[in-house]
Each structure stands twice: as structure tokens, then as C-alpha cells.
Amino acid sequence: MSTQDTEHEHDRDHDHAHDEITAGDGIGYYETMEIAVRELLVSKGFIKPEEIRRQLEVLDSRTPALGARVVARAWLDDEFRARLLENGRKACEELGISFYDDTQLIVLENTDKVHNLIVCTLCSCYPRPVLGLPPDWYKNKPYRARAISEPRKVLAEFGTFIPNDVDVRVSDSTAMIRYLVLPRRPEGTETYNEDQLASLVTRDSMIGVVAAGVADPRTVK
Amino acid sequence: MAINPVPIDAGIIRGVILASGEAPLFSPSDRVEILARSPVGHYRVPMYLRGKFGVVHSIVEPSAVDNEEEGYGRNAGSKRHYYRVSFLMSEVWARYAGSPRDELRIEVFETWLVRARA
User: Any CB–CB contact under 8 A between A124 and chain B?
Assistant: First the structure.
């Protein structure tokens, strides 16, 4: 949600036109600063343009699809699941997922007794090596403040209703640890293979705001 | 200062004295208080937890450089442990609406913790 949307709280009957949504013309202060510092570092020979491009490729290669593979493997392989819960980073490294940001990973298993939710109240700590970039709402203040103080209400707004006999456990990620939620394996997926299972695992289910979905098995390979 | 407690029959030589920070000062299930300091600059302990009481859930290995120092580019030097500390939501938020068993967990650097009475 843009700042304009937040400030522009109106009722539903519109009596005025809105501007077309377009990318802004000018660039902002921090963007200008970033370009200036980057060009300075390159011109002074501290970093090469190839290194910047390489790092962008590293980031681009990390998407929720990686996390989904990890979860699907854990659902199918109990020994892998045990290793994943014991040391998330090592188990992901087994699958070839490197931790370029030198963070550790704790994997939090959702059960019929505990539902886990991840937030970074200070900024936007996120398990980027396995999930890529965080969604905008994860970085915005309303989620950061409310996930920690009224998690059940936030979950309900995502359509996730946690019964009172299930404990909600919120992990605030602020320093060197990143978290990944291992969602519960949906019922009726006993015959699914790893690809089919991975297709049920969404980014949001690995943040803990929703459960892993149940797709029609006919629509997945 | 801690002395390596592993018995000699495990093949470990006894009597090796560890430097400050090498061995964790707190253990799982220790009750701890988060210091209510207000440092200027970069910090990693959110305001809402300062002065709150929690329980050490686990020790984060390996020991690490303090992220608050690292924020200023000081990424060498002595390491200490982070702890995964658990708080009851109802103790953190006076008017918490939810199960009394709902919990919050967060990693806290050793220098922010003091031992609290059980």
C-alpha cells in the first residue's frame, strides 16, 4: 500500500477521479544516493560492475520456490525433517541453498498444538537465502507492530483462525537468526510426490500467516 | 571464567581455561531480565522488551560478534552468545487478547541479559 493510499482513507462511493497508477518520473533521495555511492566505488576501483550484477543474480535466484522444496522434502523425509529442525541452515545447505548473508536458520514446525508466526519488529530481517525478498507488508509498520502484540487478530485478517487450544508463538527476528515456518502438511496429500507437495507451499505459509494450501491434485503435475 | 567441564574419559583434556565469552553464561530454563538500557545509536533489542522477564529457551551456537557493534563496522574481536529467550505474551502486553500460553521468542545478545530470581 502506498503512502498515498494510507493517508487517503475515503469511503466507498467515489465522487472524484484518481490519477492513473504509474511509476514516478523522478528518483528519490536514497536512490540518488545509492547510485552516487555505487558509481564512486566503481570509479575508485573498490568494486567492479560485474560484482554488483553477480550479487543481483544471487538475490534473483532466491525465491519462495526454494523454501517450498525444503518444506516438501521435510514432509516426505522424516530424517531430513529432523536435521532441518536441528539446524535449518545445514539442512538447506544439503540441498544446495547457500547462506550468502551468513545468517543462521531456525525452522519452526507448526503442529496441532503450536502455530508459529515470523516478524521482524525492528526492520525487515527475513530468510532471504531460502525465500528471496520479503513482501512489502512484511516490512511495513502495521504488520511489524501488530504481529507481535495482537498476532491472532493479524492472522484472522489473513483468513487464518487459530483455535484457543493451539498456542500462537511469534518469533521476532532481529539479529543473526532467520526463521522459516514449516507448515503442517495438508490432509489428503498422502499420495503426492515432492513436486506436488511443493506446489502447495506458498511464501505466506512459510512466514506463518496462512496454512499450506490444498490444491486440486488434477491441476498439479 | 569457566573451566571445561567435560570429563577426561571423553578424550578431552581437562584444565583448559576458557576466555571470557567463550562459554555461554546462561543455560536453557534460566530466568532472565532484559536490561532497560537506552543506548544511543544502533541497537537490536526492541523497546517493548526492555525491563521484561523471560526464560532462556536455548543457546544460539556458534557465539557471534555483537550485531550492535557490527552495525558500526566493528566486526572483529571477542564473541559472545545469543540466546533464544521466551516470553509469555500476557507478561509483555498487559491487555493481551489470546491464549495465556501464547509466546514470543526472540534472540538476545548476552550483554543485554541479567539473571533474574526464579
Answer: no
Distance CA B42, CA B75 (A): 14
Domains, chain A: 26-60 (no CATH), 64-219 (3.90.330.10)
CATH of the domain at B29: 2.30.30.50
∠A109-A114-A117 over CA atoms, to 5°? 70
User: Is A158 within 8 Å of A137 (Cβ atoms)?
Assistant: no
pLDDT in tens, B2-49: 555 555 566 778 888 888 888 999 999 999 999 998 888 888 999 999
- Decide the pairing of beta strands B103-109 and A167-172: parallel
Q: Across chain A, which distance is largest between two alpha carbons, in Å? A: 61
Q: State the Cα–Cα distance between residues A103 and A129, nearest whole angstrom.
A: 9
Residues A177, A188: Cα–Cα separation, whole Å: 33
Cell triple for residue A182?
A: 514449516
Among A43, A92, A98, A120, the active-site one is A120
Interface of B with A in 6-45 (CB under 8 A): 44-45
Q: d(Cα A168, Cα B87) in Å, to the nearest integer?
A: 12
Tell me the whole-structure pTM to 2 decimals.
Answer: 0.83
Using 50, 70 and 90 to split pLDDT, how confident is the model at A20? low
Using a CB-CB distance cutoff of 8 angstroms, which residues of chain A are in contact with residue B46? Answer: 121-122, 172, 174
Residue B3 is assigned to a structural domain of this protein: no
For the question of residue A149 being annotated catalytic, the response is no
Q: What is the mean pLDDT of residues A165-173?
A: 97
Residues A25-62 have pLDDT tens digits of 678 899 999 999 999 999 999 999 999 999 999 999 99
**To 5 degrees, how large is the angle CA A86–CA A133–CA A54?**
100
Inter-axis angle of helices A78-86 and A64-76, nearest 10: 120
